[in-house]
Design goal:
With 140 residues, the protein is mainly β. The protein is built from two helices and eight strands; from the N terminus they run αβββββββαβ.
């Protein structure tokens, strides 16, 4: 790698795009992101009220089959995260999540605060027991 290419790589943020929550089921989450290099990631999940002291995050290191990395350029690496959960997430309950990059401080709230709703500490989602609204899009 040339010195100018190495300097350019170091000036890029670790996360270039995402994370995007692509699929959610009670026992499975699929996310996608693009990094400027292959990243060691940890996904954290918490369900229940954030102010509930019994509610804490559970960490899932994204290694092996949980995170496939595909190089699409010198400084673009797609991370395909497919997490099979050992225990199902509760239905109709808010689930907070966070994603941390090894070697960097903080999670999504620090490096992508624009992904959070106003006043939220983390991005979140709900696994619904029944679908009452459906939006479909195609990327062809």
């Amino acid at each position: 790698m040339s010195s100018s290419s190495a300097e350019h790589s170091e000036s890029l943020p670790s996360i270039l795009a995402g994370p995007l929550l692509r699929r959610q089921e009670a026992g499975r989450l699929v996310l996608w992101l693009v990094g400027s290099r292959p990243l060691n990631l940890t996904l954290s999940l918490r369900h229940g009220a954030a102010d509930d002291s019994s509610s804490s995050f559970i960490d899932y290191p994204l290694t092996g089959q949980r995170c496939q990395v595909v190089a699409v350029g010198r400084h673009a690496f797609i991370h395909l995260i497919d997490l099979q959960l050992e225990a199902d997430l509760p239905l109709d309950t808010w689930v907070d999540y966070d994603l941390r990059v090894e070697g960097e401080p903080g999670g999504i709230a620090e490096w992508a605060p624009h992904l959070l709703y106003e006043g939220a500490g983390y991005p979140d989602f709900v696994v619904r027991s029944s679908i009452d609204h459906l939006l479909h899009g195609s990327c062809r």
